[in-house]
Write a structure and sequence with these properties.
heterodimer; A: 113 residues; seven-stranded mixed β-sheet; four-stranded antiparallel β-sheet; 11 strands; 0% helix; 55% strand; B: 109 residues; mainly beta
């Protein structure tokens, strides 16, 4: 398996633009997590899915953020409109079962100018 | 006070030294996770623990549920162990995942 795949790896955009981050989980993994990492706040959980259903989205900063998992092999995290304070590295991670190790994607480094 | 506290925040040691990184938490948990983040930014899961002790190569993780404390040990440390080590817990009450701020480890050759 290729591991967790995220795209794009880097994204630079201007304030106000829509940004879509993508994640392909490891096949067979039923949990998918979206994290954000900044220097100020460290790692934060944004949302996680179990069997494609959002379980906890309390970490999503505000209505500008939305995440979907239309099927077991694909998830998106969308920011609309983007703001400079959204600049961060966004990680997707997946796991099989609730108490097994997580596998992280390489992350998407987002810069909003 | 943070619900997950790590110590030390920064640690510099000589190659070969035995390293201990600590994680204390204040909530009831169902699992604790140790992560390693390399200077390039990639994150690797090291251990998922709910009790006892786990070992993988030179890495050992222990957890004491009663004391709400976990330790990550590295034996015969090597410069390639230089990374940020992050402790994360899953709250038993609401299933939330809470991260520590990380311990930055630097092993000198």
């Amino acid at each position: 398996d290729a591991g967790v795949i995220q795209s794009p790896r880097h994204e630079v955009t201007e304030m106000g633009q829509e940004v879509t981050l993508r994640c392909k989980p490891i096949s067979g993994h039923d949990y998918l997590f979206w994290y954000r990492q900044t220097m100020m706040r460290g790692l934060e959980l944004l949302i996680y899915f179990n069997n494609n259903v959002p379980i906890d989205d309390s970490g999503m900063p505000e209505d500008r953020f939305s995440a979907k998992m239309p099927n077991a092999s694909f998830s998106t995290l969308k920011i609309q409109p983007s703001e400079p304070r959204d600049s961060a590295v966004y990680f997707c991670a997946t796991q099989q079962g609730p108490y097994n190790e997580q596998f992280f994607g390489p992350g998407t480094r987002l810069t909003v100018l | 006070k943070n619900e997950v506290e790590q110590s030390p925040q920064n640690l510099t040691a000589q190659e070969g030294e035995f390293i201990t990184i600590n994680c204390s938490y204040s909530v009831g948990i169902s699992a604790l996770h140790w992560l390693q983040q390399h200077p390039g930014g990639g994150i690797v899961s090291l251990f998922m623990l709910s009790s006892g002790k786990k070992k993988h190569g030179r890495l050992i993780a222990t957890i004491n549920i009663q004391e709400k404390h976990s330790s990550l040990h590295i034996t015969a440390s090597h410069p390639r162990d230089s990374a940020v080590y992050i402790c994360a817990v899953r709250s038993h009450r609401d299933d939330k995942i809470i991260f520590g701020k990380g311990t930055r480890l630097h092993i000198l050759p």
